Write a sequence for this structure.
């Protein structure tokens, strides 16, 4: 009885699409300190285990004719290796393990986040900002180490008319420093938005229990919408990992070859 | 059911986006760095070299197999060429034998014909000779008969002539 009155107060539907992103301790209820094992930590650990399962256990037989898991591991390897080689050139290949680390972490975190009741570490700006800043700092340092002051020619568009160059340089500098922002918000935003939208539709799904009339229309529609969004999110999960990785390769190329 | 809903509602008291709750940032960043380091070492020490080795080995195997296949193909081509050559040789030999046989038979035929021709010619010559003989003897007989008849006619007409005169006259007349 109390439930019904409570439900009626809130219009019967519970909208908390952002609750899924709350970081909370896995055990107990205390505050989240630096080393607390949280739900985010748990899914990072599961990500690591999946990476080991695919890349280490999957390839452990070293078969000439690969099993399915080994095929996937080889595909992932070939995919990123070719991307690094194509975008940054031969001299970028030695940074392949770092880029592979980023890609495999993001792709697994994204896909595991799609499991019901899972937590998505990559939906948090704290995580993606660190990933993006790692790339930004590494690429900037690498650019200066490899090219010295010549790295600054990245901002000096020598193919433009001389009068325009200072203006372009200003724009180039701003765009360079905006890179980590867009790099991180793109990933976290995509992950968060998709999951939140699914949650909103999920909140509409039990409508039929509250009001049979309108619920007969809303419930099937929202279930259909959840299904469609889920399909889209599977695509987004891969594409965002791909985009993050290829942008990393592009930034790395700029650091290795800053001349336009 | 009711308590669960209420619990969820209670948990949602945190205002705004959980992403902007800075109290969890240190925790997330710490565990993210741990995760990345672990993944990096797992990949760079174990997984990537192993996969690279497997891919290289497979590439090597494929290259070897292709080379071997090309080798075998070349051998097959050689064998085929040898077979073709043997076939052509056999065919030309057969043709030569057939030609020789044909020539042989032709030569035998020609020889037989020549022999037959020669025989026929000999026979013809013999016959001609016989005919000439017969003709000569007939002419002789005609002369003798003519002389006899002339002599008989002369004597029957009451004339008398020497045998020599009559012979000369008849001979003359026959020549004429």
């Amino acid at each position: 009885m109390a439930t019904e009155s409570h439900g009626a107060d809130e219009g019967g539907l519970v909208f908390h699409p952002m609750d899924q992103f709350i970081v909370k301790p896995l055990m107990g209820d205390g505050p989240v300190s630096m080393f607390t094992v949280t739900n985010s930590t748990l899914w990072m650990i599961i990500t690591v285990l999946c990476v080991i399962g695919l890349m280490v256990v999957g390839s452990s037989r070293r078969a000439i004719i690969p099993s399915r898991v080994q095929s996937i591991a080889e595909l992932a390897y070939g995919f990123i290796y070719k991307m690094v080689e194509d975008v940054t050139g031969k001299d970028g290949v030695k940074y392949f393990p770092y880029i592979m680390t980023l890609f495999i972490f993001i792709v697994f975190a994204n896909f595991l986040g799609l499991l019901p009741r899972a937590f998505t570490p990559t939906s948090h700006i704290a995580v993606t900002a660190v990933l993006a800043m790692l790339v930004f700092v590494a690429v900037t340092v690498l650019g200066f180490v490899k090219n010295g002051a010549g790295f600054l020619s990245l901002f000096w568009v020598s193919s433009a008319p001389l009068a325009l160059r200072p203006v372009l340089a200003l724009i180039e500098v701003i765009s360079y420093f905006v890179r980590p922002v867009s790099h991180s918000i793109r990933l976290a935003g995509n992950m968060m938005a998709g999951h939140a939208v699914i949650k909103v539709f999920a909140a509409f799904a039990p409508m039929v229990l509250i009001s049979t009339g309108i619920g007969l229309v809303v419930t099937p529609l929202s279930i259909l919408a959840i299904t469609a969004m889920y399909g889209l999110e599977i695509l987004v999960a891969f594409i965002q990992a791909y985009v993050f990785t290829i942008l990393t390769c592009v930034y790395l190329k700029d650091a290795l070859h800053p001349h336009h | 059911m009711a308590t669960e809903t209420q619990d969820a509602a209670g948990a949602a008291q945190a205002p705004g986006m959980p992403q902007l709750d800075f109290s969890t940032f240190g925790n997330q960043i710490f565990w993210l760095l741990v995760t990345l380091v672990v993944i990096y070492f797992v990949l760079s020490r174990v997984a990537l070299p192993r996969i690279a080795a497997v891919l290289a080995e497979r590439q090597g195997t494929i290259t070897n197999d292709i080379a071997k296949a090309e080798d075998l193909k070349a051998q097959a081509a050689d064998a085929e060429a040898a077979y073709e050559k043997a076939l052509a040789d056999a065919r030309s030999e057969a043709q030569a034998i057939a030609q020789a046989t044909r020539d042989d038979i032709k030569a035998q035929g020609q020889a037989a014909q020549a022999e037959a021709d020669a025989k026929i010619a000999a026979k013809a010559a013999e016959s001609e000779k016989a005919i000439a003989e017969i003709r000569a003897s007939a002419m002789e007989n005609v002369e003798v008969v003519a002389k006899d008849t002339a002599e008989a006619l002369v004597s029957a007409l009451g004339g008398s002539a020497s045998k020599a005169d009559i012979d000369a006259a008849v001979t003359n007349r026959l020549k004429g």
Notes: Chain A touches chain B through 59 residues (CB under 8 Å). Chain A has eight helices and no strands.
